[in-house]
Amino acid sequence: MASLKEIKGRIASIKNTQKITSAMRMVSSAKLHHTQGMTEKFLYYKDQLQAIVERLGGFQLTSPQQENVHSVVLIPISSNSGLCGAFNSNINKATFQRIQELKSQGKEVLLLPIGKKIAHELQKAGIDCNLGYFNLILHIEKGGNFAEIAFLVEYLLQLHQNGTIDSVEFLYHHFKSMGSQVIQIDSLQLTVDKSVQHADEQSDSQPSTHNPQPSTYLTEPSPDELLASLFPRLLNAQAYGILLDSLTSEHAARMLAMQTADDNANDLLKELTLLYNKTRQQAITNELIDIMGGQSGKH
Fold it and tell me: Which of 69, 108, 208, 248 is least surrounded by Cβ atoms within 10 Å, i.e. has the fewest?
């Protein structure tokens, strides 16, 4: 059985660790509420911008047809630091699984990791990847503007225009709730495809007995000029929204991990305190027995 001094030392150590986990939980909670508010507001902006672009161009943004995709840029997003439960390990597992799936389909895979953890895992596995944007998540967390995102999107557009890639996939955690973050893959459409039209656009072209409603914007300059200006902004917004979503999931996962650690520390403290009291009581009992035995020996 451990001595009283050892048990007391363990209790003190756990209490010190609990102070750290409790502080990290509160910090993660504050960051989560801040980032969650930013994400909700920004996603509303992104959805409205996408609706304008689709309505302006008379098309619907869709993922590229798989049969036309021969090379893919895979962008997995992890965190820069640990202590967030299975957040990074899930991304690592999903990334390697997705790489195998794409290669089994005969597609060339170019990797562009965002986040130190996934970048380190890919390097450790000996997989060649572009590390030029691995620290992008840190800029977003510190309140970075669209400049960093614009550089990334411009780089992806250049690769597409040069014929190097056909598709871009973001692999990240989507925030569903405080206790649930799911792995999601989103494709980024790099070209304007007018082959898929809205149902309301198609219905507008059919004769109707009702009074016609205006189906297009009155724009100055022309719709094509506005579309050329707004479409890159939409790509920036989509990429930024994905990074915000992943960052929100990271803070939620870390807060949950620290809450679990805090609860486990409380349970362990109760067990050690009970053990300490039992050991102390046993030591007192043994001392009393020794004293009583000594007194009876004199008689």
Answer: 208
Closest listed residue to residue 168, CA positions, set 92, 114, 125: 114
Give 230's Cβ-side CA count (13 Å radius). Answer: 20
The Cα-based distances of 128 to 78, 99, 170 in angstroms read 17, 12, 18
Burial of 276 (0-12, 13-18, 19+ CB in 10 A): middle
In the numeric block, the tokens 């990797």 are attached to 111
Q: Is the overall model pTM greater than 0.70, yes or no?
A: yes
Which residue from 284, 297, 280 is spatially nearest to 3, judged by alpha carbons? 280
Helix 223-298 / helix 4-57 crossing angle, nearest 10 deg: 170
Give the strand pairing for 180-188 and 108-111: unpaired
Q: For the chain, list the domains and their CATH numbers.
A: 22-199+217-256 (3.40.1380.10)
Torsions phi, psi of 296, nearest 5? -70, -30
Burial classification of residue 168, based on how many CB atoms lie within 10 Å of its CB (0-12 exposed, 13-18 middle, 19 or more buried): buried
Phi, psi for residue 155 in degrees, rounded to 5: -65, -40
